[in-house]
Amino acid sequence: MYDAIIIGAGIGGLVCGCYLAKAGMKVLICEQHYKPGGYCTSFTRQGFTFDAAPHCFGSYRKDGMMRKILQDLEVDKKLNIIRPDPSDIIMTPDYEVIFWNDFERTTEGFQRMFPEDRTNIRNFFTLLMDTDPNSFSRMKNRTFKELLDQYLTNVKLKSILSFPFLGIGGLPSSMISAFIGAKLFSEFLFDGGYYPEGGMQALPDALAERLKEFGGELRLSCPIKKIRVRENRVTGVISEKDGFMPSRYVISNCDARQTFFKLIGGRKVEREFSQRLKKMVPSISNFIVYMGIDGHFETLPRPGTTLSFFRYYDIEKAYRSVLKGDFEGYGGYMLRASRDTPVIIAIIPVPFKNKTYWKDHKQRLSEYLIERIERDLIPNLTAHIVYKDASTPSTLNRYTLNYKGASFGWAGIPSQLAVPGLRKCSYTEGLYLTGHWTTLGVGISGVAYVGYDTAKILIRREVNRQNISFLIK
Ligand SMILES: Cc1cc2nc3c(=O)[nH]c(=O)nc-3n(C[C@H](O)[C@H](O)[C@H](O)COP(=O)(O)OP(=O)(O)OC[C@H]3O[C@@H](n4cnc5c(N)ncnc54)[C@H](O)[C@@H]3O)c2cc1C
What we know:
Distance between the termini: 27 Å
CATH topology of the largest domain: FAD/NAD(P)-binding domain
Mean pLDDT: 94
Structural class: alpha/beta
Largest sheet: 7 strands, mixed
CATH class of the largest domain: Alpha Beta
Bound molecules: flavin-adenine dinucleotide
Strand content: 15-25%
CATH superfamily of the largest domain: FAD/NAD(P)-binding domain
CATH architecture of the largest domain: 3-Layer(bba) Sandwich
Number of strands: 18
Number of domains: 3
């Protein structure tokens, strides 16, 4: 009998598992893939190591949540975390806006470029960095565009500050929640770019190692087929390989639709909740081109820094182009040349479509992206490419089982924030969710926080039941 079985070894599941095991609970994590990490993995082809999806994380400043978690778990001692300076640059035909490691320097750069909004920029950035716990309720029902319009006047500046959502989350500022938008700036752009030396895989590997040191168990290549429920209480999980494994708590780190409709089983899901779930919208997926190159040639732009390139300022039009799969109309991409290995990745948001669509479009879109990068940033790139491959939304779905290859769980729109029942199931005792499908946090640092918070809830429940050796403050 386990105290807790976690389905999925994404960053959310691993962090949750580490805290529970550290508290003295008997924990098992079952992961369907043969390596831990979920989206946060790396792979090697022909000697080149690529980060599969995320390429950095945020919130690692002195009092950042990610630092607190990695320090609490002493995972920081196993990693060498580096941060390029600048961490991010947004490029348009007229501007190059830079996110330095120094918040003041970043703010002054923006103020120099947009002098008419000088004071507004300071006020706006201060608002984005607001750590007041009530900021959630103040921003919950607003969109990021409403904030932009309230604080700033320059139309191009407002577009530039909206690009990160479109480029990463695939949403225009008129749709993305003001709260998520503010968090993306405070926890990912103003405090972003952190990278574990050796590749993103180093992070889940270190967490997995720590889980074992705390006495927890991790089973890889172990897909869970069912969560067993008896009299409205979870009793354990069923895997193809190991059969029934009993547990007092089951925590799902995987996609919420899979959790409720497949693992629990449609009929056992409360009707009203099931209908709400069916109406919820996933975030958009991404297309990623991986390029292994023949060394650090002179036109390679700023290795380590994430470059986001946008040709047009019309965000709404760009968003409609993304939905249609019109990449020329979208006119942007994100690019990162690695600091320590000769690899480059390029990412754009794309709709899910089906396998046949991607079979037909994969090659063409890769070539189109490389051609654009050659024209905009790296002349003669093709001549330097030694190895090339790409991930489509189907690839992302195949490796992680995330619904529609959604990059960030549910779309970050105001109606999909802190949705009840997506962390603790109200009608099935002992069932919890963690990770980016809970509507409580996205991105590496966001899901690490959710993993920590889910563990905290469980540990509090356990305190009166048994002798817990460690308590989260
Ligand atoms: C292209 C791309 C780029 C991104 N860039 C960044 C970035 O630069 N920085 C950043 O912070 N975030 C980024 N993100 C987002 C970030 O990767 C995710 O939000 C985060 O990794 C999600 O973690 P998670 O633990 O919630 O879930 P996941 O990583 O999805 O992990 C879920 C795990 O559950 C497993 N699983 C599923 N079903 C089962 C089952 N039935 N049985 C057993 N195991 C199962 C999966 O195999 C997977 O390992 C990016 C995402 C994408 C796709």
